[in-house]
């Protein structure tokens, strides 16, 4: 690994046990030499590559979504893979390849590729966020081995990984400027660019005169520079926006070459201790009324809300839809509120003098966790009953997945309160990664339509509404093609055909940067089923 060099205008340093050097002391008003960092050739190359990578983020990933209204796809996948390679190959404080680092890089590659595979916009967006957060944490882990495995200070570590690169935003321009000033080729290139800028006015005048003098030359120029002004403005805007993106990525990697200060953990703990201003008994008392409400709730409404476990409706309920909607989303909200309560009382309440958590805080947190797990079990049971009656939809799947994730987190909270061996942040990160991987890679929309279609054809689902397919991406089209010509009414069959045709045309005429494997599979499935239907009709 190439080491960083620091060039100082004055070199009167004394040895120090921690850093190796101690800066000289100066009297008040005395001139202090400016510290100038020298970048290695490899770092300069990465600085220029960072410019390209930043532009890729804007041109290939953001522009198709923001400017053209398309989805993510091939362009975003290529950009994320390039960012993964960039961050992996960049020199760091620790070049040791560990199992945890291999897992992080493998996850980044897998989720980057999945952005090209699926056309589900929500999953694509979440995949992109996951990859970027993983890369940021990976560069933090490259700076110090203590971050290699998720610690109890993981939330603080994650914030450090995201905000620490902001202090190195000027590093990329400095590296490029330094390379240009020291390189003969850089100076020559700068002079050439200056000359071209000076030549712009005279070139424009001569070009206009020649176009006025000859019609053939005018046609050639118009064909060459058609919409050049508009394209140039777009390019300049995208380039300007990409500069801070590239600076952040380069700063994130440069920062990984510096080991965090030895007092970083103490500062984080000091900040956390500064938040603990509420007496422990006051915090426990603030959550006690909620627990009382849960006791009353379960006793008074047990026959109504817990009837889902018996797979039957309460006697005073008209329909499944009324039963599920009346309680499910309310219970979801209560579960989230309970999570906020537990985080609040554990973050803002005072701990014992020895740094341990007070017993009253442990007890009330355990009680809230148990009640929440019961509420989640009730809510999931109600939703299972609803799905059995009316089939799957994306909202039902996503909310059920979220409730199951909350159940794992609350179970982890309960276990961490009982035994110190449970690392709650690490358990939460692993649980989220595993569950999010399952959600991301299984083609949720395709499964939803396929299950509903099979149940409809088997007669266990009363109706199939093609309209909800229109709210999905092309990932749902291959499964929807199984129902072509098989719905109960001609109107529904025509509506399904229109939806399939519309989505296939959009996939065929869309921007190549938004192309996905799901688009290709949808197009092939639509054509194959159309041919089979025509042959059967013949």
Question: Features of this protein?
Answer:
538 residues; mainly alpha; 3 domains; two-stranded antiparallel ribbon; 2 strands; disordered N terminus
Please summarize what this structure is:
By secondary structure, the protein is mainly alpha-helical. The protein is built from 20 helices and two strands.
Radius of gyration: 30 Å
Secondary structure: helix percent: 55-70%
Q: Which range does the strand content fall in?
A: under 5%
Number of helices: 20
Oligomer: single chain
The total count of strands amounts to 2
Number of domains: 3
Structural class: mainly alpha
Distance from first to last alpha carbon = 70 Å
Can you give the mean pLDDT? 80
The largest sheet, given as strand count, sense and whether it forms a barrel, is: 2 strands, antiparallel
* Element-level helix/strand string: EEHHHHHHHHHHHHHHHHHHHH
List the helices and strands and how they pair.
Blueprint: E1 5-8, E2 35-38, H1 41-66, H2 74-89, H3 99-117, H4 121-143, H5 154-163, H6 171-182, H7 184-213, H8 215-224, H9 228-255, H10 264-275, H11 280-300, H12 302-305, H13 320-348, H14 359-390, H15 394-418, H16 424-441, H17 444-458, H18 477-480, H19 490-509, H20 517-537
Helix pairs in contact: 1-2, 1-6, 1-9, 2-3, 2-4, 3-4, 4-5, 6-7, 7-8, 11-14, 13-14, 13-15, 14-15, 15-16, 19-20
General description of the model:
- The protein is an all-alpha fold and 538 residues long.
- The chain is 70% helix and 1% strand.
- A two-stranded antiparallel sheet has the order 1-2.
- Helix 3 runs antiparallel to helix 4 (121-143), helix 13 runs antiparallel to helix 14 (359-390) and helix 13 (320-348) runs parallel beside helix 15 (394-418).
- The protein starts with a strand and ends with a helix.
